[in-house]
Amino acid sequence: MTKEKKSLTWLLVFCVLAVVGIAAFYVIAPRLKPYTNLRIGDGIFNARLALTDADKLKGLSGTATLDTGQALIFVYDYEDTWAIWMKDMNYPIDIIWLNNDKKIVHIVTNAPPESYPSQSFTPNKEARYVIELPAGTIDARSIKINTQAVFDETKRGDF
């Protein structure tokens, strides 16, 4: 085998391995994000946890949809009036704020993506957790103020 053929063969092997590696990363990486099981009202949801500042800043921005049975939980270190905006959102959502005891203190239904940048959504009471759900979920799942949520933000669930 000539030196040129060997070089071409190694280049081809490297390219194939790079493509396989990149594809595997895009399949596996989303599964490595922290998830938990969320029970609230009469619903059970697979919820991604937004634990880092970067995840909280991004939220659901840029996503195409949030499927029924899915949720995003923002986990903060302390209670405050955490505002939610709809920057780069493509669909409406329901938003729930929970206190330290994981009881609902504020609800916004059907927050429209068109509300950004003129409006952000802020609770009227301090909260430690914020949950984003597909629009219509609050009404469909009997979710109300003072409803208890159940989830564990310290370990991964079955997603």
Describe the 3D structure.
- With 159 residues, the chain is of the alpha+beta class.
- It contains 3 helices and 7 strands, in the order H-E-E-H-E-E-E-E-H-E.
- The protein has helices at 3-28, 53-58, 137-140, and strands at 35-40, 43-50, 70-80, 93-98, 104-111, 127-134, 149-150.
- A 7-stranded mixed β-sheet has the order 5-4-6-3-2-1-7.
- Strand 1 (35-40) and strand 2 form a beta hairpin.
- The longest helix has 26 residues, at 3-28.
- The N and C termini lie far apart (50 Å).
- The model has no long low-confidence stretch (mean pLDDT 89).
Characteristics:
159 residues, alpha+beta, 7-stranded mixed sheet, 23% helix, 31% strand, elongated
Poorly predicted tracts of residues: none
Characterize the largest beta sheet: strand count, sense, and whether it forms a barrel.
7 strands, mixed
Average pLDDT score: 89
Could you tell me the radius of gyration in angstroms?
21 Å
Strand order of the largest sheet: 5-4-6-3-2-1-7
General form: elongated
Please indicate the percent range of residues in DSSP E strands (runs of 2 or more): 25-35%
End-to-end span in angstroms? 50 Å
Structural class category: alpha+beta
- Specify the helix fraction band: 10-25%
Number of distinct helices: 3
The quaternary organization reads as: single chain
Order of helices and strands: HEEHEEEEHE
**How many distinct beta strands?**
7
